[in-house]
Write a structure and sequence with these properties.
Order of helices and strands: EHHHEEEEEEEHEHEHEHHEHEHEH
Shape: elongated
Distance between the termini: 31 Å
Radius of gyration: 21 Å
Helix content: 25-40%
Structural class: alpha/beta
Number of strands: 14
Largest sheet: 10 strands, mixed
Number of helices: 11
Length: 353
């Protein structure tokens, strides 16, 4: 964007400092912030109560992030909407809107691609291109809310990318999306998913943000986890669970363990028993979210049949482990992480198999 900066990246205090620097009254900053983060305007021209001279001055130094959808797919099964957004530099990302009885939930991306290498995930097949800015993550939510015409009540940072691999921008996003001067979404309605970056989990537990942490566990032991998730070679499972226990203690929030079941890989009765033993001694309140894997064409992994998933859940419950099977949303529109983005890129002839 030439030498201009993204004004949507500034929090309310930074915007007030900018307005003071420009010799403008303090209330102008609050007006600007409201236009950007409540009205979700796409240009300075739309800010009706801002003087033209100030709008012209700001537009010389700043731009407003506006991400337009390149593609929108709507599930005929459940109304789930899958978005592919174009970024200013030619990259594309994806986000998902899921409609529930309790409200509208969006799953957003935090990176273009991902470098974690999880074997069952399409997001990581081409690595990580770059981090998203806080403004770009905000724009995912704003554009979906505007498209839907309804309020977003829940956010899951579980799309493409490892959020804690983009720690500073994700943290800025969290503070801004929960800001009463912005969309004011409750931190308790936000879930951040991580594959287990131990130092960052410990940092997050001290941020005084009561969000829910979801750990991508996917295996009942270290060896199996290394097979499925390369990042496990860097952080031992015991070390990851210790950091998660500290997160529960420090925040008072329940943690969610995400367990993607893959046919013939981690779905046996023996592995369900082993998972029960592993979590029985976990020091904190938790929940196991069983996720039948959504197959991707680049891997041979298959989703287990319904009986196998139910059996896995039953074993956990018999061992007094709180578990549910995630309701599959948007399966007819390639809703698993990275699938639609990758298909979009293939159709644009920008990558080859």
């Amino acid at each position: 964007m030439e030498n201009r900066k993204d004004i949507c990246e500034l929090n309310i205090e930074e915007l007030r400092a900018l307005i003071k620097e420009k010799g403008q009254p303090k209330f102008r900053a609050d007006q600007l912030y409201g236009w950007l983060h409540k009205q979700k305007v796409k240009s300075f021209e739309e800010m009706k109560n801002i003087p033209a001279a100030l709008k012209n001055l700001l537009s010389e130094e700043y731009y407003i992030t506006v991400m337009e959808p390149e593609d929108i797919l709507i599930s005929r099964l459940d109304g789930t909407r899958k978005y592919v957004f174009a970024l200013f530099d030619g990259n594309v990302i994806e986000a998902v809107l899921m409609k529930y009885k309790h409200g509208n939930s969006v799953c957003i991306s935090s990176q273009v691609g991902c470098r974690m290498g999880c074997r069952f995930c399409a997001s990581t097949l081409d690595g990580c291109v770059r981090n998203l800015t806080a403004a770009e993550m905000l724009s995912e939510v704003y554009r979906i809310e505007s498209d839907l015409g309804e309020r977003i009540s829940n956010i899951v940072i579980m799309g493409s990318g490892e959020p804690l691999d983009n720690y500073d921008e994700v943290l800025r996003f969290l503070h801004m999306i929960t800001d009463p001067d912005g969309l004011n979404i409750s931190a308790r309605n936000i879930t951040l998913s991580t594959c287990g970056l131990v130092p960052e989990i410990r940092r997050l537990s001290k941020e005084e943000l009561p969000i829910t942490l979801a750990l991508s566990l996917h295996a009942p032991n270290q060896a199996k986890r290394e097979e499925i998730m390369p990042i496990a070679k860097k952080y031992e499972l015991s070390e990851v669970l210790s950091a998660c226990a500290d997160y529960v203690r420090d925040t008072g929030r329940r943690i969610s363990f995400e367990y993607s079941v893959v046919k013939g890989v981690n779905d046996s009765k023996e592995e369900a028993e082993e998972l029960s033993r592993l979590l029985r001694d976990f020091k904190g309140v938790f929940h196991v979210n069983i996720i039948p894997v959504n197959p991707i064409e680049e891997r041979e992994y298959e989703s287990p049949d319904r009986d196998a998933v139910l059996s896995f859940k039953d074993i956990l419950e018999r061992n007094k482990i709180n578990a549910t099977i995630r309701r599959e949303m948007g399966r007819d529109i390639s809703s698993a992480c990275g699938q639609l983005r990758r298909r979009h890129l293939k159709n644009a002839n920008t990558i080859t198999d």
